[in-house]
Input
Amino acid sequence: METTLSDSPKTAYGLAIHGGAGAPSHSTAEEKLAYHAKLKESLDAGYDVLQKGGAATDAVIAAVIILEDAGLFDAGKGSDLNAEGACEMDACVMDGRTMSAGSVTGLQHVKNPIVLARAVMDKTQHVMLMGEGAEKFARALGFEMVPNSYFQTERRRKQWQQLRDGKLPPSENPREAPGSEEGFGTVGCVALDAKGNLVAGTSTGGIVNKMPGRVGDSPIIGAGTYANNRTCAVSGTGQGEFFIRGVFAHNVSALMDYKGLALLEAAGQALNDVARFGGRGGCIAIDRHGNVTMPFNTAAMFRAFRMSDGRGAIEAPAIANEIKPSR
Amino acid sequence: METTLSDSPKTAYGLAIHGGAGAPSHSTAEEKLAYHAKLKESLDAGYDVLQKGGAATDAVIAAVIILEDAGLFDAGKGSDLNAEGACEMDACVMDGRTMSAGSVTGLQHVKNPIVLARAVMDKTQHVMLMGEGAEKFARALGFEMVPNSYFQTERRRKQWQQLRDGKLPPSENPREAPGSEEGFGTVGCVALDAKGNLVAGTSTGGIVNKMPGRVGDSPIIGAGTYANNRTCAVSGTGQGEFFIRGVFAHNVSALMDYKGLALLEAAGQALNDVARFGGRGGCIAIDRHGNVTMPFNTAAMFRAFRMSDGRGAIEAPAIANEIKPSR
Output
């Protein structure tokens, strides 16, 4: 397990993002550069909001939209295909100041699931909407709706077909070789704004060849996404079922709140708790002091962070030798 | 807030059930007796399993099925109607020994949602299935499917229609008078078997006139349902959105695990945390020593428990003067 701890003065603001724990095993050199560039674009978009004095919620949404639109990650365009060959997407956002949250699951036509999650938080009395009901709500709000084929990239469809045909080499089959973890690629963002507010957001297409209707950890408050100004904001990625059973993201917060652990230790212990019953993955987390940790127990993780005091890094694991900490 | 604490020798086994926090405001005397009788029937069915040395999971399922079939509670037959006049049901079960869980949301045709939740736990690699995907899985397993009208009782439809027409007196409108809480009625069961295993299960039709696709706390691991042999089993009921945001059930466990609180204090504090941002409801919880607590902060709560050392009570709030502790 690798962790990153950063101490900071209390005035720091900033954000962290992830593009999933795992690593694509067949990236071309061009793809590798594309991953790095998209992480930077997402990070900059979120940071720009914060730098202008904007709210953490706006920063998280801005950062995640770019990852959803990229076609590179398992979220929005580029989502994994389910057992029926369709993309079904989940997303969630939680505001650590108000402890309000919005979550959507089972979307097939909403171009940017994270934006709909925010609308559930801002415009309804509910926290979570699923499937057709969620999409009806999106249509009523005039959201951009797209055919499911929009989300299905050639690479994901090919990988899905090979898995279905039993032709995917075991080393690349996420079911048989967790180290390959081709299927991971959930995206997320956690941010601390200049007012000291913490927000977490996560968006995903779930796992390849999942049963139709499968809900992962990303849209579950306390599992894949959680924020609480008293403690931290967390966005997880990995084998969702284990993160749900471990109530992962809330566990990080509870370990800080009730045991007095620092962010680094809390995230590490919560990840170990999930690993104890076999779960693999990682998370990004930020606390109200601007400390950041991004641990994972998989082969690698797409991750990046940027803080107002100059700390920062972008890590696209396929180009690990090109890691460029900003200082 | 009212709480019930029971100390017990470590050898005790038993269970607690609830039929929701809130109270029907227009029950006839016959209805009141019917509620009491159903709670007893459910309690006895679960207890019978445990007494024969059966597993807590089997006890929970046996108890909840009876409440789902009763036509009296907001779960299975008798579920509240959503904004489109349909019943959409959620259910969840979690095993505290293996920390495995099964959850379903947005069901419209599965007669016993709790049984499907268990099938998700036992027969899939997933934890949670939603909507059409969940029902396809049920059909593939040969589950009993019923038309949605099966779930819609005359009383619930009338209440829904009055709410829609603006004819429900404010005192009986759950949106305007939280004290009336006609809309509550989620059911659940927590059990400790003779082997020391803890299991929690919850089933619900959600809240009246909810948006289609709304997911409440009941099917969310850590919110409305949680079990962990190290700490406790919890099933919540009430204004689900608040219980999700408070990650209620896992919070009870975390307060025991990390702060060393006893079950009574942990459940009380977690309920207070939810109440702090306006949430009303209650829960049943049991720990590995056989302690039971059933706090609520609403007008009343249908609740009952029975332990092998003779402790027990059945409380149907409309007949509060007939509370009959078994000793």
Confidence is low (pLDDT under 50) at residues 1-5, 176-181, 319-327 of chain A. Chain A has one domain: 14-322. Residues 14-322 of chain A form a domain with the Glutamine Phosphoribosylpyrophosphate, subunit 1, domain 1 fold (CATH 3.60.20.30). Chain A touches chain B through 47 residues (CB under 8 Å).
